[in-house]
Amino acid sequence: MESAVPELQGRRFDVIVIGGGINGSSAAQNLAAEGYECLVVDKEDFGSGASGRSGRMLHIGLRFFEARNPLRHFALHPGLFLNAVRGARQAMAGVSEHLVNAGKRIFRYRMCFPVYRDGNFRTWHLQAGLRLLGLLGDGRVSLDHEIIRQNHSEKVPFFEDFRDPEKLHSIACYNEFKFDWPERFCIDMLLDAQRNGATLVNYCKAGIKTRKSDGDWAVSLRDATNGRLPQVEVTAPVVLNMAGTWTDDVLPSSQDKQPLVQMTKGSHIVAEMPETYNGFGVAHVNRYGEPFYVLPLYKNLFSVGVTETPFNGDATNVSCTDDEVDFLIEECNSLLPGRRLSRKDVVSSWAGIRSLTPSEDGLETRVRMLHDLTPKGHPGIFALTGGPIMSHRSTGRLILEAVAARLKPSGNTGQVNYEPFQFSNSDKSPSFLADEPEVRVADLESSVRREFAKTLTDVLLRRTSLAWRRKLTMSEARKAAEIVGPLLHWSDEEQRRQVEQFMAFQKDVFRIPGTGCNSE
């Protein structure tokens, strides 16, 4: 497939969005609908960074109040409580919005939070938090919370797996929600932005260079897949730096440039759970007092996580280490010893890097912040840190307000469409895999014809989600390459290379302990 980058040479846009993750995609969707001529570029595939590597939670916000001895914790740090309320309000608003029109791309389950007589949590802590969430919501999100004090196994079928059942004071149960497929939200929003006139280019490295005399910023673009193509330059009065963990890398060079991003690594493992877990999740805190979850992922697969460790370096293709796998197994067995999880039960894993807002006192690292870089000598440049996937819709509107205060749109107003883009579901197109009948051959073809997929990993991971559902075989990867290869003008050699790259990605990034790379 020919690169779109050379065609952009000299183009001027109203807004350039660097980063096609879930927040950059939401920003582009809102801006394009308002009439702004937008360019969206991503150095890899859309949704391939933190958005696709997240815990996939569309949570109600209770986790913001989860802390050992929360009364003392928040009394000593009132700023943390205010931040928790702010985050919880955004979370409830995000759930409420998605319930209206996200369709099957979010799903509900029953979360169970055990409260022990000798633990740091009290039943009233959970009750107070859930009631507060109800007050922060708009009434459209039914938490349906209940405190189970007796006959636990009637309401929680896997009750016997909990540690020390005789010490349980209660189990708080309430509704929680998950994104089935956050990468698909990125693609859907970008396709909607394109419908309203946005230009989309993935696998395109961008760097903000200098501000010209007319006030526009010059942004350099280079095709990430073809180093022989020349660098081009585009301009815009407003640039949105939505590059996540790479935010600091794309900013203009400066001797006194202070980092905007603080990074932490979150790792998950995936294991099968018995049928008794179907429709449920489990929440608690780990040995460090950090949130810990066992959550439904797909069919009988559950994710176990998450870690919270400082990270420095390149977030590309980061993976879960053996030490992190063992830590998560130990934490799961501490919470659910009846499951007796071991390394042999781990069918895959993944890790992602969060781009948080640094603060000397630590109070703002969980707060979404849109930075106007005018005070730093960069008028017209905005950067986002700490933007969770659950509140991406409100983030898009927040960014629209910031841009509108600075610049009028050059085009006509359109309309945001949140409805999920549909797969072909054509009766004339056969299913690609017998055990995943809803994904058809036509869907793989559509991913490259209109959804900007350029690699086999794009197709099997982000456009169809098949690689998230189970490990794909070499023959299945070859079959997919034979379908999309001709549409992308791949030679036989290139098809083989794409298959090898996908299989290596699956082995190294979704690795099981003791195999593949062991990245730090």
Seen as an oligomer or otherwise, the chain set is single chain
| Most strands sheet | 9 strands, mixed
Distance between the termini: 34 Å
The DSSP helix count reads 14
Low-confidence stretches: none
Structural shape: globular
Structural class: alpha+beta
Tally the beta strands. Answer: 20
Report Rg.
23 Å
Helix content: 25-40%
How much beta, percentage-wise?
Answer: 15-25%
Structure summarized in a few sentences:
By secondary structure, the chain is α+β, with helices and mostly antiparallel strands. Helices cover 30% and strands 23% of the residues. Strands 3, 4, 5, 11, 12, 13, 14, 15 and 16 form a nine-stranded mixed sheet that branches. A six-stranded mixed sheet has the order 6-2-1-10-18-17, covered by helices on one side. Strands 7-8-9 form a three-stranded antiparallel sheet, with no helix packed on it.
What does this entry look like structurally?
With 520 residues, this protein is of the alpha+beta class. The protein is 30% helix and 23% strand. It has 14 helices and 20 strands. Strands 3, 4, 5, 11, 12, 13, 14, 15 and 16 form a 9-stranded mixed sheet that branches. Strand 12 and strand 13 (291-298) form a beta hairpin. The relative contact order is 0.17.
Topology diagram in text:
Blueprint: E1 15-18, H1 22-33, E2 38-41, H2 70-76, H3 78-101, E3 106-116, H4 123-136, E4 146-148, H5 152-155, E5 168-179, H6 182-195, E6 199-201, E7 204-211, E8 217-223, E9 232-236, E10 238-241, H7 247-250, E11 262-272, E12 280-285, E13 291-298, E14 301-305, E15 309-310, H8 322-335, E16 346-356, E17 369-372, E18 381-385, H9 392-404, E19 431-433, E20 436-440, H10 441-449, H11 456-463, H12 466-469, H13 474-484, H14 492-509
Parallel strand pairs: 1-2, 1-10, 2-6, 3-12, 10-18
Antiparallel strand pairs: 3-5, 4-5, 7-8, 8-9, 11-14, 11-15, 11-16, 12-13, 13-14, 17-18, 19-20
